[in-house]
Design a protein that fits this description.
The structure is a single chain. Helices cover about 45% and strands about 0% of the residues. The protein is mostly helical.
């Protein structure tokens, strides 16, 4: 099959380097590399797991996070808005 393919400059440079190194044609190198890449099992693209470590916020006695507006009033006063 014939097709036109636009390559990024860095990819074209690597391709040219591989062609010079092996003495093979562009068609041979491209086909070999595409076959190898397409034959590999696909990665599962699952995000890496992470853990959240709970920490004590050390709130002053009497401050509660249940009601944000009450907390802001306690910290900044009633004119915080």
């Amino acid at each position: 099959m014939r097709t036109t393919l636009s390559l990024d400059d860095d990819v074209a440079a690597k391709l040219q380097s591989e062609m010079r190194r092996t003495g093979r044609s562009m068609k041979e190198v491209v086909n070999e590399r595409l076959r190898a890449a397409l034959s590999r099992p696909r990665a599962s693209h699952q995000p890496a797991r992470f853990a959240v470590t709970a920490r004590d916020l050390k709130l002053a006695p009497g401050l509660h996070l249940d009601k944000v507006s009450t907390l802001l009033d306690d910290i900044d006063g009633p004119d915080h808005r």
